[in-house]
Amino acid sequence: MGKAEDKTRETAEKLFGSGIKIDPPYRMWKEFDRDLANDFSRFITGNLYSRTMLTLPERQLAACAMLAALRAGYELRLHINAALNVGCAPRKLAEIFFQLATYAGMPAVNEALAVYRDVLKERGQWPIEQST
Q: Can you say whether the dihedral through the CA atoms of 74, 93, 101, 65 is positive or negative?
């Protein structure tokens, strides 16, 4: 195994190694084209997510905000779990989703919070501590 594959596997383990159990998109990609799936994985997880300009928690907060605004529930579920795995504070994630109101509207807020609550319940972390 080469350095790129090691970095990809290490980063993927940090992000997706624990928590809810859903199939990551990588498994579906492999069903269609194993080589392309590996290329995508090396680029996304091995190269982009392993860059150091942003920390993994910062990248996950950004990913969750973008996916919530796009109302991409399946991917949001995966990345909320990853955000929690790399140490994002649960209240900060909630705040990210409330911030959507201005830019994506209340339906996006409601959908993101519903997905978030489901992930937290599956992880045994619901309810989250209320802010003071």
A: negative
Nearest to 84 by CA among 108, 53, 66, 60: 60
pTM value is 0.90
3-state per-residue secondary structure call for the chain: CCHHHHHHHHHHHHHHCCCCCCCCHHHHHHHHCHHHHHHHHHHHHHHHCCCCCCCHHHHHHHHHHHHHHHCCHHHHHHHHHHHHHCCCCHHHHHHHHHHHHHHHCHHHHHHHHHHHHHHHHHCCCCCCCCCC
The structure tokens listed for 65 are 């905000």
- Torsion over CA of 55, 56, 57 and 59, rounded to 10 degrees? 90
Q: 116-131: per-residue pLDDT in tens?
A: 999 999 999 999 988 6
pLDDT in tens, 4-33: 888 889 999 999 988 878 888 889 999 999
Residues 117 and 115: their CA atoms lie apart, in Å, by 6
As a whole number of angstroms, the distance between CA 41 and CA 34 comes to: 10
Token pair recorded at residue 47: 């190269």
